[in-house]
Every structure is written in C-alpha cells, then in structure tokens.
Amino acid sequence: MSSFFSALIIVGVLGSLLAFFLILQMNNRTNNKPGQTTGHNYDGIEEYDNPLPAWWYWGFIATIIFGLGYLAYYPGLGNFSGLSNWTQINQLEVEQAVADERYGPIFAQYRDIPIDTLTSNPAAMKMGHRLFINNCAVCHGAAATGSLGFPNLTDEEWLWGGDGTTIETTLRHGRNAMMPAWSSVLSNQDIKEVTEYVLSLSGREVGAALASSGQAHFMTYCTMCHGPEGKGQAMFGAPNLTNDIWLYGNSRARIEQVIKHGGNGAMPSFESRLGSDKVHILAAYVKSLGES
Ligand code: HEC
Ligand code: HEC
To answer: In the chain, how many domains are there?
Structure first.
C-alpha cells in the first residue's frame, strides 16, 4: 500500500473514533435539565432532556478504548503491522505446523514400506485417494483418467515410467516435456507426410505414398526421442506412438497440430508442497491405479 493511502486510512479510522467520542460528549453535556421535556412531542410521546444513563455512557467509552487497543495490537491502521505482528500467513504457518505435528506420524508410518507392498495396504490407499482428490484431481481428474494434455494414470502407457520409484521421482521433482515445434524446420507438406507416417505406426489406414515419404522425416528428426520404432523413450517423456493412447487427441488434425506446434506438458513438483511422506503414499496410490 502506498504511504498516501496508508495515511488516509489512519486519519480516517482514528478520526472516526474521535468523532464518536465528541458526539458522545455533546450528547452528555452537563446543561441537561433532568425531568423536563425538550418540547418534542410526537403522537403523545414526549422527549425528556435526561443525560445518558451512566452504564450506557461508559459502555461507549469502553468500546472506544477497546477499538484503540485492537488497532494497536492487530494490523488495521494502514501499513502499521500491529504490536502482535499477526498476519494470515503467520497464522496459517502456525496451524500447518500444528497439523504436521499431529498428523505427520500418520503419514510417516508408511515411509519405509516399499511402494510395491504399500499398494496392497487398504488404509494407505484410502489416504492416497484423499491426497489425490485434494492435490491431483484438478488436472488428472477425480478418477485419474486425465484429459487432453493431462495423462491418464490408470492405463498401461507411461510417459516417464510406471515403476514405483520412477512415479515417486515424477511426483517429487515434477516433469517438463519438450516436444519441439516442427513448423520452423519442416514444410507443411513434410508435416502432412510425417503425420501420415505417425498414424500408420498404430495401424491406422493411411496413404501409402505420403507415409513412406513421412518415414524418411521421422527417421531424421523424430527417432532421437520417440525411438526408431516410434515406441517412445521414458528418458525424454516421449510417448509411444504405436498404440491408440494419445495425450493430445487421436484425430489426424490434432496429431498434426502437436507435430507443428510441439508440446510442453508440465507436471508440477510436490516434494516441497506435500513433504516426502505424503508423496510416497501418493506414488503407491498412482501405482495401484495402473494395477487394478
Ligand atoms: C526432443 C525430443 C522429441 C523429438 C525430437 C520429437 N518429439 Fe514428439 N514428443 C516428445 C515429447 C516429450 C512429447 C510429449 C509432449 C508432452 O507431453 O507435452 C511428444 C509428443 C508427440 C506427439 C503427441 C503424442 C500424443 O500422445 O498425443 C506426437 C504425435 C509426436 N510427438 C510426434 C513427433 C514427430 C513426428 C517428431 C519428429 C518430426 C517428434 N515428435 C520429435 C519429444 C520429442
Ligand atoms: C497443474 C496440473 C497438474 C497437477 C496438479 C498434477 N499433475 Fe501430474 N501431470 C500433469 C501433466 C501436464 C503431466 C504430463 C507431463 C508431460 O506431458 O510429460 C503430468 C504427469 C504426471 C505423471 C507421469 C505420467 C506418465 O505417464 O509418466 C504422474 C505419475 C502424475 N502426473 C501424477 C500426479 C499426481 C499424483 C499428482 C498430485 C500429487 C499430480 N500429478 C498433479 C499435470 C498435473
């Protein structure tokens, strides 16, 4: 907040407290005439000129003092952070530390159980499911079946590898796919041809002549990551192109789009967000999805 607005807020808040106090004093002036009416009369109801009852007057004074105390202790006066240094972030951190201390051991008990064994532990998998819904479902879907650009975690295809340790590495550090955009290297015709060849890899019906020219481009530009047979390479997160599982859609148009413009799927890292114990349980949960 700029110091101008900070000052404006301080003047406004303290000014209105002062105004309350002054109005209170004006209404409580000593020249009241107790027992006499002010002359105001409405439908037979008369207004008397009595002072405020003392408990009421001191009640107002108490609220003003409370307000001043509150504004000194908590943030409220512009940029002044209050004597307590309270912030929402501080409070969240304290609450998180308390929660970690209380619930941490529940997650830690599975720390040393290998992922392949953990997958058959119902209590751990129930926990994994809840962690998944809270942290992963936004992208991979509640049933982990994914959507365009977000891989299905329940099928047998893995971009980066489907064994327990690799899944755990994926969750810990995240992954960044680098499928180059080929529109600057290959002509539109070349891209049409290589698309045709890619389609042929999964047994789709294609134009033979186009596909065979496409194969030459594939061998030159694509095998480094997708492998000579197009079966993919987990080291690069390069998908297998020979089955009917497509991250970006299976239509000819979509496949051509990916080849033209590339793909940079980004899986966030969760180590610092969730801690390694929760990641371990989640890795086992993801592993179990592929097994059922
Ligand atoms: C540097 C490594 C690399 C090279 C070279 C490369 N790719 Fe890829 N490709 C990838 C990666 C990684 C992905 C996954 C992208 C993602 O996850 O966002 C991918 C994805 C794809 C897809 C989408 C697959 C799907 O499931 O939707 C197609 C199609 C594809 N590549 C074709 C090609 C073709 C054709 C070439 C050569 C012209 C090529 N790639 C060259 C790494 C590469
Ligand atoms: C912001 C979206 C997002 C969130 C949240 C997210 N993911 Fe991902 N995840 C992705 C994307 C995108 C990819 C694919 C990366 C690529 O293209 O290579 C991916 C890839 C993966 C992979 C690798 C799949 C393979 O085939 O190798 C696993 C496993 C995974 N996610 C599990 C999880 C789990 C478990 C969580 C929750 C802790 C999670 N993801 C949260 C977007 C997300």
So the answer is: 3
Same domain, 252 and 281: no
Task: Name the token pair of 111.
Answer: 């720390």
Look up the CATH number of the domain holding residue 167: 1.10.760.10
Q: What gap in Å lies between CA 16 and CA 213, rounded to an integer?
A: 81
Verify that 165 and 60 share a domain, yes or no: no
pLDDT of residue 20: 94
Q: Phi and psi dihedrals of 48, rounded to 5?
A: -90, 155
Counting as low any pLDDT under 50, the low residues of the chain are none
Helix extents (H) in the chain: 3-27, 54-73, 88-108, 115-118, 122-135, 137-140, 164-173, 188-201, 208-217, 223-226, 252-261, 271-274, 276-291
Ligand 2 within 6 A of 127 CB?
Answer: no
Whether the CB of 266 sits within 6 Å of ligand 2: yes
Same domain for 193 and 58: no
The reply to whether 60 and 39 lie within a common domain is yes
- Give long-range contacts, CB 8 A cutoff, 24+ apart: 213-220: 217/186, 217/190, 217/193, 218/194
Tens of pLDDT, residues 270-280? 999 999 999 99
How far away, in angstroms, is 267 Cα from ligand 2 center?
4
What is the model's pLDDT at position 292?
A: 59
What's the 111 CA to ligand 2 centre distance in angstroms? 22
Q: Mark whether 170 and 282 lie in a shared domain.
A: yes
CA of 265 to the centre of ligand 1 (A): 11
Least distant ligand from the CA of 179: 1
| Closest alpha carbon to 171 in 143, 139, 145 | 139
Beta strands 266-267 and 175-176 are antiparallel
Q: Give me the domain span that covers residue 112.
A: 90-176+268-291
